[in-house]
Write a structure and sequence with these properties.
This protein is an alpha+beta fold. It contains 4 helices and 5 strands; from the N terminus they run βαββααβαβ.
Length: about 140
């Protein structure tokens, strides 16, 4: 099984999740404020984060399946993200891949189309790819 997740993340040391929501005009799927804790024993967060997930249209979606979801958020959202990126926030598109079958052709390669690259440019967003390989080596 190979699973991809994709989301837009906004991180700021000065803006609250509410500030980010107000500037973007879109509610987050997940958000954390400066000083909050993941768990009681963890140190307080040094930054706020605001996340919007690209919901997979099909099981075991690949990045090219998730791309239309992000593009569907529209150029206005990308522009608003870009304005935040220039004013105290960092914006990134995060792709998380969980690989359980290293022989699967679905695990090979990550493709991002030119329209998504253009959208990321408008959003002044970096690309963050996290890959987790769950494989028992002999």
């Amino acid at each position: 099984m190979n699973v991809f997740r994709m989301y837009v993340r906004v991180v700021s040391g000065t803006l609250t999740p509410e500030d980010i929501t107000e500037r973007l005009g879109v509610r987050p799927d997940d958000a954390h404020a400066v000083g909050s804790r993941r768990r009681p024993e963890h140190p307080p967060r040094a930054f706020s984060s605001w996340i919007r997930h690209a919901e997979a249209p099909v099981p075991e979606a690949r990045p090219e399946d998730l791309e239309p979801v992000v593009l569907g958020w529209g150029p206005g959202f990308a522009t608003a993200l870009g304005e935040l990126a220039g004013n105290g926030a960092e914006v990134s598109l995060v792709i998380v891949q969980r690989i359980e079958d290293i022989e699967s052709t679905a695990a090979k390669g990550i493709f991002l189309g030119p329209r998504l690259i253009e959208w990321l440019s408008s959003a002044h967003a970096s690309l963050d790819i996290d890959q987790y390989i769950h494989h028992d080596c002999p």
